[in-house]
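The aim of this short unit is practical: by the end, you should be able to scan a pair of folded records and say something sensible about each. We start with the first protein, listed as its amino acid sequence and then its structure tokens.
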Amino acid sequence: MDFYNVLINWYLQNKRDLPWRKTADPYLIWLSEIMLQQTRVAQGMPYFFAFTKEFPTVFDLANASEEQVLKLWQGLGYYSRARNLHKTAQYVANELNGVFPENYKSLLQLKGVGEYTAAAIASFSYNEAVPVVDGNVFRVLSRYFDIESDIALPATKKEFAELASELMPKDNPAIFNQAIMEFGALQCVPKSPNCMVCDFNESCAALQKKKVADLPVKLKKTKVTNRYFNYLVLEDVIGNTLIQKRTAKGIWHNLYEFPLLETDEIVGFEAVSKAVQKDIFPSYTIIGIEECAETTVVHKLSHQHLHIQFWKVKINSEIENGLSSSELKTFPFPIVIYNFIEKQEINC
């Protein structure tokens, strides 16, 4: 088919030199696909190299502690991916003798492996003719064929998967999947694609109808919740501090943080001071409280915007089992807190 031939020709001339494209090892492909969910290649690449160096096999990853995995993942976000990655590695290593399932349906049974990831592993590792459908594929196909179906609906994903399956050559599904995703990532980009230099500019329906900016259609909007975090950086007489582990389900599960005061809005010194002395650190004698920065840090997650303030709380005694600044850096933190520690704003 002409679409396939044009696409593959473009891919062979323009594809990026990515390490996971040089292997059919399902462990490495699985690792890369999990890392690249909601993550740009440029951001994910250093993590891929770090993980493959530290954990060259699925057995190495399985034998690591969750804390080791979270620490190495720090800054990549969506930490449930890292926890699922670790659990799946343990399952593959211990229950499957280190051998990944060899087909799409069986891969779907692995924790943290959805339809897209299963399709990627099945096609790239085992040459199974199953299409990948991600944001890039939605965009390319919706524009080329002028499809106005709402991609937020499950039925639309099935529609696009069937179309991609029709276009895919059954004898070489891997190169088709790689090519269409790469085309969406490099050429048919979300905003202001350069259609004048596109290999499909004479056959793309959206371009002919001047609808490129309108496709794909996504009607469902994500509701964003605002939360207000006040982190209390305790500092004792020898400069040590205190952290805690987030054990509740939700964001940053099993990562570490400073003691937290969550409020309904951005608050000032009086509200923080009252809570610190009455509810949070009643057993310490507080000798000073001050905000560590003039501006609130806004940390944006997929469904939440966190408005974060850091407060230094000085006490006139020594914290039992307190941690020094250097010791802090060995723990896995949300990146916004780790950046604060790195900048040594703890000494504000």
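Turning to the second protein, read its sequence before its tokens, just as you did above.
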Amino acid sequence: MEKNIIIDLKNVYKKYDDLEVLKNINFYIRKNEFLTLLGPSGCGKTTTLRIIGGFEQPTSGEIIFEGKNIINIPPYERPINTVFQKYALFPHMNVFDNIAFGLKIKKLSKKTIEEKVKNILKMVNLSGFENRSIESLSGGQQQRIAIARALVNEPKVLLLDEPLGALDLKLRKEMQMELKNIQKSLGITFIYVTHDQEEALTMSDTIVVMDSGEIQQIGTPVDIYNEPKNAFVAKFIGESNIIEGIIHEDFVVEFENIMFDCVDRGFEKKEEIDVVIRPEDLIIENFEEAKLKGKVISVTFKGVHYEMLIESDNFLWKVHSTTMAPVNSLVGLSVLPENIHVMKKVR
């Protein structure tokens, strides 16, 4: 086992009556890592987070925290704090008392509490807000207070359950950067739950993609985006063209009855596979010279690029390009070998 692992989930299984919510989940989290549990509603990501925090008990399995199984340790005794989507701030207390709540329970000195609250408010860019009422704060400010209240207790791990879900788009993007900066500066392990792919790609060191109570893929944002393990990951993370193909030998793949060079190897000869090509990786070429040919069915301006649907003999390709080809025009398409991603078919 790696020395810097802080939490290790081993065969974590959770069942409600006849419903399997988690099916033997196995993964680990490193110290000072920003790890995101990503997936659609009902995939098991929040249940996983709640089990780590101690708010749910697994049906079976172990949660190893720094070498010790903490399954039977209650939430308040774990060196873990949680920030929920609903911030759960105390409306009858001002900002100072909300943040100081946990410190007062620990019976720290008044001077120590004041110093800690002042420092954490500075970190979340809310210096001078000590005496403000919670109800006078904006959604983004309340979210920062909730984070400050969790961080002031100096947990080893912070759990965040879709904490940006209630914010508008602009504020969400600002807070994504702020959260990442806070995590880096404090060196605390963050475990983050979201269904937002862009949020996961922007903030994470590691992403755990989940579906139907199972892990589909674990990797860096670049790995998850560029090398999806299966069709679910390819569709869920960004936009994809997924077409059936055959890999004839190492580095040679066929789709649309055309042979292409690729960079994949290790498949059986003549194995039926799925090919993933991202829309931005398709290049519009001269119709006569290209291997792939098609007719432009629709064009939509998306701001930074045009989105075109191009119909070939056997497939409808989605293409993102700064070059616009008009509707009904005939175009060629090309793709570099490294942008052709070969995946095993899910049986």
